[in-house]
Structures are given as structure tokens and as C-alpha cells.
Amino acid sequence: MVVNIFIYLEVFLSLVSYTIALYDNLATLLDGVHSPIAHLSTSNFYTITLIICLAMPSVWLVNLSKISFLSSVGVISLILLFVAVALTPAFSGIELNQKISSFNITKIPTVTGLYIFCFASHMVSVISFASVTLVYVTVGLLGARMFGAKVEGQITMSMPKSFAVTKMALIATTLTPLTKYAFEVFPIGVGVENSLPRALSKHTRRFIRRAFVSFFLLVVLVLALLAPQFQNVLALTGCIVSFGISVVIPCVLYLRIFVETSAASKTLLVAVICVSSVLGILGTITTGKSLVENM
């Protein structure tokens, strides 16, 4: 039950982050474009509402096999974004001469929340972790050297708007969140439908399921409007949920299952649980305070 709550909470907060990212990149992409859609981009409410309405039919699906190909969009977008960032200093005229900020111990809890969120969604394999680590470190260093302390929470917001490669990166980061709604909400819809009494007809259960996921997306919309700070919501998700799902709960379950494990292993696992819990709590307080101050 506790694990399910953590998983659903992670899905909810992740969707809020995706919605914020989608609005930010779409608004930047349409900036200066004179069209009815571009006019809507001047308002957070109209733009994000339009996005949710477009995504709504996809969460009503009960069989995702026909749109399974969309799962590859995330990988393709990551590659496009990586190439775009790498090409920016080479062809846009921006030099890698910015000074990287010195180590700030007060930001460790928040930064740890971002890191744990980024790595928590990947399968546990050497190749997977090595690949994403290389991408994260490279993009992070390039962003820091190009823009310094002025870099935005999303690097696409800092890249030169007139640069053709920036448009490619914006399109990629706009499409990625839009394709995630159906896949993220699907397990919640299945859980709701399975929890309904079997006495109800199949059509009634499907109707309730679709009504619930629709309401779920509307709540996501409201929270995205209230807390439009992408990096803070992402860090909060990592501190509240990812630490629990990826670190604390697995360690606790391991200790409960393998009771006869060595004293050294127990000590290490308890230390990991304690450190993760402290970082999660401090990060939640820090990012939560920052979100409230910026509302």
C-alpha cells in the first residue's frame, strides 16, 4: 500500500513537471509567431489548458499497443537535445568562457533531489547508467560553461532563440512530455478500474475510469499553474518520492527479507537509509519553501 502511494505520487508530480516543461518550451517556440495559437501562448492558463485538452483523449485508451511507438520519442528527443546543446557553442557564436559557480553546500539537498529523480527512472544496468551519466555530465558542463549562473532551469530556455538547432531542441522537448501522459496515467486508470465492484458493468467501470483520469489531469493542470517552476517541482519529486522508491524502501525490504545478512551489509544499508532520509527531508523543506515563495 505504501509503495503504491509513492508510485502514484511520483506519477502525479512527474506529470506536473512535464506540463510545466511543455508550456515553457511551447511558449518559447511560438514566441514571435503571429497566429491564434501564438496568441494563446501569452497566457499560462490558455496554453496549458489547450495542452491538457489535446492530451486528454490519449489517457482514455485502455489498450496502448497502437501508440506504443510513441515511447521511442523520449530516446529520440534526448539524442536531439544532446546534439543541439553540443552544436550550440560550435556554431552559434557562444563561447565556453563562463565561470562555473563554486561549491555551495546549502544546495546539496535540492541538487540531490534532481539527481535522484534523473537516475531513478532508468533500469539498473551498467550500460544504462553509464550512458545517461555521460549525457547528464556533458550537458551540465556545457550549460555551465556557456551560460554560467544565468542558465535557466531548462537549458533550452537559455539557448539562442534565432539558432536553427534551438528550434529543433524546443520541438523535441515539447513533444516528449505530450507523449508521456497516456503511459504515465495508464497504471492509475487500471488500478481504479480493478478496484471497482465487479457488479458494475464493463462500460460503467470504463466510464468511471475515464472520468477519474480526466479529473486527475485537471488537478495536474491546476498545480502546474500554481507552481510553474520546473526545476523546483522536479527536485521536490526526487526528494519526496524518488528517494523513497529507489533507495529507502528497497533497502528496508532487503533488510526484512534477508535477515541473515552480514553485520557489515546491515550497517551499510542502515547508513544509506539514514542519509537518504535526511537528504530527502532537507530537500523537501528547501524546495517546498522555494516553491511557496515563487507562487
TrEMBL record:
Presence of the UniProt keyword Cell membrane in the record: no
Transmembrane segments: 5-23, 43-62, 69-94, 114-137, 207-227, 233-255, 267-285
Organism of origin: Papaver nudicaule
InterPro entries with a match to the protein in the record: AA_transpt_TM
UniProt subcellular location: Membrane
Keyword Methyltransferase: no
GO cellular component entries: vacuolar membrane
Membrane protein topology class: Multi-pass membrane protein
GO molecular function annotation: L-amino acid transmembrane transporter activity
PANTHER family for this protein: AMINO ACID TRANSPORTER, AMINO ACID TRANSPORTER TRANSMEMBRANE DOMAIN-CONTAINING PROTEIN
A Pfam match: Aa_trans
Start and end residues of each Amino acid transporter transmembrane domain: 2-124, 125-285
Protein name (Swiss-Prot/TrEMBL): Amino acid transporter transmembrane domain-containing protein
Chief place of localization: membrane
Keywords associated with the record: Amino-acid transport, Membrane, Transmembrane, Transmembrane helix, Transport
